Amino acid sequence: MNTQEQLTRYVANFVDELSKSGLTDVVISPGSRSTPLAMMFAEHPQIKEWIVLDERSAAFFGLGLAKQTKRPVALLCSSGTAVANYFPAVVEAHQSRVPLIVLTADRPHELRDVGAPQAIDQIKLFGDYVKNFHEMALPEGTVEMLNYVRTRAARSVSEALSGNPGPIHLNFPFREPLTPDLNLENIWGEPLREPYHIWHEGKKRLPEDFLNYFAEKLSIARRGLIVCGPQVDEELAEGITMLAETLGVPVLADPLSQIRTGSHSTKNIIEGYDAILRNEVIRASIKPDYILRFGAMPVSKAYLFYLKENQDVTQYVIEPHAGFREPVGNPTEFIQADPVLFCSDLLEVSPTLLSEENDWLTKWKSYNDIAKSHLTKTSDNTLTEGEAVKQLVDVIPHNSSLYVGNSMAVRDVDTFLMTSSKKLTILANRGANGIDGMVSSGVGAAASGQPVTLLLGDLSFFHDMNGLLAAKQYKLNITILVVNNNGGGIFSFLPQAANEKHFEALFGTPLNIDFKKAVEMYDGNYHQPKTIHELKKALQLSYGELGLSVVEVKTDRTENLIWHRGLWRDIEEDILKLVEQ
Amino acid sequence: MNTQEQLTRYVANFVDELSKSGLTDVVISPGSRSTPLAMMFAEHPQIKEWIVLDERSAAFFGLGLAKQTKRPVALLCSSGTAVANYFPAVVEAHQSRVPLIVLTADRPHELRDVGAPQAIDQIKLFGDYVKNFHEMALPEGTVEMLNYVRTRAARSVSEALSGNPGPIHLNFPFREPLTPDLNLENIWGEPLREPYHIWHEGKKRLPEDFLNYFAEKLSIARRGLIVCGPQVDEELAEGITMLAETLGVPVLADPLSQIRTGSHSTKNIIEGYDAILRNEVIRASIKPDYILRFGAMPVSKAYLFYLKENQDVTQYVIEPHAGFREPVGNPTEFIQADPVLFCSDLLEVSPTLLSEENDWLTKWKSYNDIAKSHLTKTSDNTLTEGEAVKQLVDVIPHNSSLYVGNSMAVRDVDTFLMTSSKKLTILANRGANGIDGMVSSGVGAAASGQPVTLLLGDLSFFHDMNGLLAAKQYKLNITILVVNNNGGGIFSFLPQAANEKHFEALFGTPLNIDFKKAVEMYDGNYHQPKTIHELKKALQLSYGELGLSVVEVKTDRTENLIWHRGLWRDIEEDILKLVEQ
Question: Which residue range or ranges hold the Thiamine pyrophosphate enzyme TPP-binding domain (chains A, B) (predicted)?
Answer without folding.
Answer: 439-553
